[in-house]
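U., I forgot to send this yesterday:
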Amino acid sequence: MTRLGALAVVVTLLVGAAGCAPRSGGGDAGQDPFSDAALRHGLPLLPSPEVTLQPDVVVVGGGGDSIRSVTADGLTWRIDPEADRADELAPGKVMFVTGRSVGRVLDVRRADQDLAVTVGPVDVTEVIRDGTLARQGMSLDAPVAYPAGEPFWADPAEDGGTGGGLTVPPGRFGRSTPATGAIRPATAGQPATPDHPAAKRPDRPPPIRGGGGVETRSGRYAVFASCCTDGVGAHFRYADGGTALTGTVTLTFNRPSADFHLELRGGSVDRAELEITGGFGIKVDVKAGTESGRNIEAEFPVGAEFSFPIAQVLGVPITFTIGQSLRISSAFGAKLGTVEGSGEFSLASSLGYGYANGSFGPRVSIEFARKKSLVNSLTGVPVGVMGMLLEHRVKFTVGFSALVLSAGVYFELATRYGMTIGSALGAPYALCRGVGLGITARFGIGYTILEPVAKAINRFLSLFDLPSIKTSGGIGRSAKVYANEEVIPDVATCGRAPS
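Result:
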């Protein structure tokens, strides 16, 4: 990555028309990003002659002090209706209260003593029209954990499918406190719902300083998210209908740091770079079994992110965040059986990409080596073929907003582990073991949302005839980093490993 200065810290937002600079949001200059107020809701955007936003951005005054609550799903913010410029918020505008509360306004209304604003995702270029934003040497050693709490989009489907929130338990949209609006009566197979999106839902819990770990839940999956002593990972547990699963997936690293650069001109990206160094590896440990032959399939975000607040530079609040998501799928070929295995691999010294002149290029310095063989570790009691597919995605983002609505310069590493153990076709006394390992990088400028999450959010929004959201915004690409398969014994009757 290009070095941008001897002090390794440069942040500049250059925009032509000073007349579009945001009005003052109060005397928050120099606010400590680790103060209680800043940690809870983020830092405000401060006025600067060097900063101009897109014309439909409304900078609400008061920063985090104007925010009274936010729902766990991140969609509805209750703010002080007397805050500067709060009266300018309207559907179609972009709300900017703090660096963690940025979004396209979908609905705004009075709710008790608050102004309730429901937002959707927004691309970086929809916030900043022109400018250069860069930072080097960001140390990722003092994380703040942000648990999501009980967002309705966290639940996979009841049948173990990829979900989309279609089986949200009755009352999920209106839990925690009484709704402020009338309640629509339930129809067959559907929960009762409030008649507007400002009705109270579970609030997002406070952040946790020091990183470590956060216990979360996605439907019947208990997930413990951890970061950042020696990596970022997720430990998951599942037990239902005679099928049980436990495991841990980790992207390992050692004292990582990050550099990024973003140039915007006329609402388009001219150049972008993101590089994270720290010596990366991957690790998996999983055990699954069934007494009923019940297979499981789910895809969901881990309900916690780890954030590294960056102090305001020229008034711009930006944050480096690490988020995770999981995809879990079983292929049990019998009603009774178990499979377990573990493996570890070194991967790369750095992860990142560059974008210039309309083209992307991944920058992943591969140093792949096997530390512990996954295929050799596979054991179990297969009465037939037992198969598992795990996908662990780790996403690094430098930008605005939070959790599933985060937007900015991002790099996501998706690692897929496929495992099978069982009898060879036509040779019931030959035990076959197979492993497929695939690693893909996805990167870009903007936002991406898991399809099941977007479906859940859109189902909620459709209850109130609000515009649906898209699964992505901005520009991005993907690239294969590594792919391999191993089968023991290497005979035709054992077939191929799962991909």
